[in-house]
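lol forgot to send this yesterday, sorry. C-alpha cells for the thing we talked abt
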C-alpha cells in the first residue's frame, strides 16, 4: 500500500464503503393494522438487533422490546439519539435499513432504534375509551382508552431503562403509524418535552378520540415557545384526510416558527404502503441540516469547517454533537486526495485525540505524515496503531519500510 500513496488512499476509501454499503436496502414490509400480530412477537428480524423483555409495573405486564444499535456501537464508545418505534413487527426491518443507508451517507446521525412490541395496540394507542367507528358501535374496541398508562410506561419505565442500559444522547424521536400516529400526537400534547421530534404517519383518528384534534389546536395556541420537529404524512386514503388535514391546518395557523413541521401527501401510496416514504422523508426533514455542505465531505477545506458545522448542529439540536470517527477519516482522505496534506494531518490528529483507542485513526495519521515526509511522526503513529491492533498488517509493513529507510 505504501508503494503508491494515491493507490493506498483509494483502496482504504473503497474498502470502507464496500463493507458498509453491502447490506443495501431491503424490500418494503407490508403494513397490517389489525389487532392480531402479523408476526410472532418474539420473531426478531436478523441483524445487529436484540430482544429484551421488561416488566412494567405501570401496565402490570411484560413488555417485549426490539433494540437496534449501530454497527460500530460496541467499539465506538459514542452516544446516540434514540428513535422509539411503535408497531415494530410491521416496520422494524426497513427502518433499521433506512438508518444504515442515511447515516452511512451522513444525511442523519447514527441512531439507536427501540421497537415497542404490541400487546394490545387498540388499548395502548388510544387516549379515550370509545366503541365508535364510522358512526357505529364496534365491539372490538372494548379495550380502548389505555393511552395515558402507555405514555406513563414509556416516560417512567421504558426511557429510563434505555438511558441506563445504552449510551444515549438526550434527543428522542417517536414514530407512529395509524393508531400509532394518534398516540404520537397525544404524546406531544400530554408530554411536550418527552420527545424532541415526531413522525406521524397516516394517523387513525376516529370515534371519541376525535377530541384530540381540538386538544391539539389548544395545545399549539398555549405553547408559543414550542420547539422541535413534526413530520406528518398521509397516503391516498379519503377516510383519513379530514383528521390529517385538520392537524396541518392547526399547525399552519398556530405553530410557532421555532417548531418545524411538514405535511406530505403521497397520492400513489395507500394506508399500508405509505410508511416507507414517510419514514425516509421524516428522518430527512428532522435532520435536514446534518449534511455538511452541498458536496458533503468534499466541501471541507479544513478542520475549522468541521468544527463550525458541528457547533451549529449542537445549538440546533440541543446537545453536544461531535463528528464521528468515520466522518473525520473521510474528510482527511478527501484532503489528501487533493494534495492538502497539512490540513489532512490536522483532521487526522484531531480524530486521534477524540478517539485515542482507534487503531485506524492512528494508521491514517501515520499515512498522512508519511506522505509529508515526516518519518519520525509517521513511525510513532504506525507503532501506536499496531499496539492497538496487532493484526494491522499495513501498520507492520509501514513500520518495517520506514525503519529500512533510516
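and heres what i got for the seq, position by position
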Amino acid at each position: 500500500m505504501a508503494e503508491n500513496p494515491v493507490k493506498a488512499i483509494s483502496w482504504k476509501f473503497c474498502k470502507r464503503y464496500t463493507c458498509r454499503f453491502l447490506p443495501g436496502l431491503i424490500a418494503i414490509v407490508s403494513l397490517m393494522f389489525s389487532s392480531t400480530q402479523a408476526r410472532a412477537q418474539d420473531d426478531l428480524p436478523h441483524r445487529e438487533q436484540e430482544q429484551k423483555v421488561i416488566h412494567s409495573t405501570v401496565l402490570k405486564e411484560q413488555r417485549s422490546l426490539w433494540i437496534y444499535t449501530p454497527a460500530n456501537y460496541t467499539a465506538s464508545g459514542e452516544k446516540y439519539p434514540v428513535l422509539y418505534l411503535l408497531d415494530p413487527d410491521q416496520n422494524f426491518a426497513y427502518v433499521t435499513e433506512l438508518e444504515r443507508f442515511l447515516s452511512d451517507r451522513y444525511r442523519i446521525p447514527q441512531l439507536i432504534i427501540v421497537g415497542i412490541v404490541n400487546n394490545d395496540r387498540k388499548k395502548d394507542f388510544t387516549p379515550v375509551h370509545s366503541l365508535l367507528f364510522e358512526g357505529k358501535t364496534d365491539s372490538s374496541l372494548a379495550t380502548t382508552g389505555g393511552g395515558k398508562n402507555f405514555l406513563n410506561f414509556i416516560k417512567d419505565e421504558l426511557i429510563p431503562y434505555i438511558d441506563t442500559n445504552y449510551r444515549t444522547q438526550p434527543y428522542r424521536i417517536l414514530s407512529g403509524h395509524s393508531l400509532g400516529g394518534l398516540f404520537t400526537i397525544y404524546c406531544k400534547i400530554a408530554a411536550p418535552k418527552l420527545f424532541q421530534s415526531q413522525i406521524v404517519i397516516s394517523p387513525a383518528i376516529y370515534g371519541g378520540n376525535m377530541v384530540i384534534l381540538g386538544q391539539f389546536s389548544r395545545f399549539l395556541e398555549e405553547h408559543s415557545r414550542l420547539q422541535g420537529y413534526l413530520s406528518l404524512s398521509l397516503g391516498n386514503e379519503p377516510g383519513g384526510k379530514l383528521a390529517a388535514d385538520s392537524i396541518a391546518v392547526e399547525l399552519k395557523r398556530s405553530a410557532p416558527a421555532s417548531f418545524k413541521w411538514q405535511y406530505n401527501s403521497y397520492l400513489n401510496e395507500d394506508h399500508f404502503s405509505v410508511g416507507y416514504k414517510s419514514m425516509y422523508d421524516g428522518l430527512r426533514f428532522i435532520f435536514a441540516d446534518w449534511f455538511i455542505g452541498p458536496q458533503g465531505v468534499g466541501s471541507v477545506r479544513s478542520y475549522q469547517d468541521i468544527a463550525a458545522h458541528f457547533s451549529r448542529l449542537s445549538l440546533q439540536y440541543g446537545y453536544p454533537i461531535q463528528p464521528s470517527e468515520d466522518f473525520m477519516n473521510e474528510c482527511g482522505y478527501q484532503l489528501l486526495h487533493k494534495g492538502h496534506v497539512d490540513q489532512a494531518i490536522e483532521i487526522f490528529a484531531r480524530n486521534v485525540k477524540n478517539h485515542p483507542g482507534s487503531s485506524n485513526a492512528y494508521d491514517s495519521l501515520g499515512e498522512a505524515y508519511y506522505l509529508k515526509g515526516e518519518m519520525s511522526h509517521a513511525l510513532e503513529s504506525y507503532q501506536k496503531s499496531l499496539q492497538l491492533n496487532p493484526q494491522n498488517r499495513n501498520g507492520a509493513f509501514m513500520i518495517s519500510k520506514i525503519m529500512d529507510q533510516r
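Residues 155 and 194 are 7 Å apart (CA to CA). anyway ping me if u want another try
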